Amino acid sequence: MTDTIIGAPRVLIIGSGFAGLGAAIKLREAGVSQVTILERADSVGGTWRDNSYPGAACDIPAHLYSFSFAPKSDWSSHYPGQPEIRRYLEGVTDRYGLRSSIVFGAEVVETTFDEPTATWHVRTADGRRYEAEVVVAALGPLSDPKIPDIPGIADFAGVQFHSAQWDHEADLDGKRIATIGTGASSIQFVPHLAERASSLTVLQRSAPWIIPRFDRPFSSLEQAAFRWVPGLRRLFRTSLYWQKELRFVGFRKGSPGMALMSLVSRWHLRRSVSDPALREVL
Q: What is the C-alpha separation between 26 and 30, in angstroms, rounded?
């Protein structure tokens, strides 16, 4: 049992995604008992709550893209979808008893620091006020979608929305659809749109480099082994970590590693796209 630190600071954490939940858990373990999480939405999950577009999934292996202190043996695949990751975060919240420390519907609009008392004063959109000696900003870089400032876009009479604010009520079947961008989100949802639209136009500024993901589901035997074989899950996670760390050399401009990654990416493009004209623009 963790001892409570006498005179420990009051801590306010803004956001309940991976960063906010992880900070709260570790602060409690360190003996800081007065921890409050302010979350503007009505549930935890951060980007994995907000980004629910078709095909949304992790692009880092799940055994690595999870808390080291809260491992999960039964991930369905190397790169699971958004619903599974969100359920994982909900489960972590309950396992560590964090719900009683979370204030939902609390959008922080102002923080000020009073130097004489060394105290943060925090105000939320509904007028509630909080005080703490420490504020942890666990907002994440993807908490607010960036809406492009395109002249005339407000005059478009059809359905339009950002992928981070996916309109699941929109009828997309048989429609002419245009998407802007070919980043990580677009790569995931465009194939789903292609199956539903009568025509699909993808507007691209610059072509991304794409390497094979090599995703596959975990068998029930593998899941059981991760659960019951001592040290296997940790060994697998460690191997994933070093694979990703060593791959970094492939992203250093001018390095032999980058030349190799370029060859792999071009091979993947030739293997995936048979149309030479389309391949040229990709």
A: 6
Beta bridge partners of 135: 12
**pLDDT digits 0-9 by tens, 9-28:** 999 999 999 999 999 999 99
For every residue of 46-62, DSSP letters joined together read THHHH---TT-B-SS-T
CATH number for 44: 3.50.50.60
Are residues 198 and 229 part of one domain? no
The whole-model pTM stands at 0.91
| Cβ-based neighbour number of residue 45 at 10 Å | 23
DSSP state of 141: T
Q: Residues 6 or more apart from 154 whose CB is under 8 A from it?
A: none
- Considering the domain boundaries, does residue 67 fall inside one? yes
pLDDT at 202: 94
Give the total number of structural domains in the chain.
3
Q: How far apart are CA 19 and CA 14, in angstroms?
A: 10
- Range of 256's domain? 220-271
Residue written as token pair 């007065």: 34
